[in-house]
Amino acid sequence: MANMSLYRPILKKAWDISKRYKSLWFFGLFATIISSGGEYEIISRGIYDPTNSGGWLTIIGDSLKTITDSAMSVGGNVWLNIWQSILKYPIQSLIALLIFIIALAIGLFFVWISITSQIGIIKNISLIMKNKKPSINEGIDFGVKKFWPVIGSDIILKVILFILFLLLGQEMILTNGGNIALTILYYLSFIVFIFAVLIISFIIKYQIFYVLLNNGKFFPSFKSAYQLFIKNWLISLEMALALFLVYIVSGFISLLCSTILSAIPIVILPLYFTFLPVLVSYLIAIVCFILMAVIILFIAAFVTTFQWVSWTALFVRINSGEEISKIERTAQQLQNLPRYFIKQ
Question: CA 72 to CA 167: how far, in whole Å?
Answer without folding.
Answer: 22
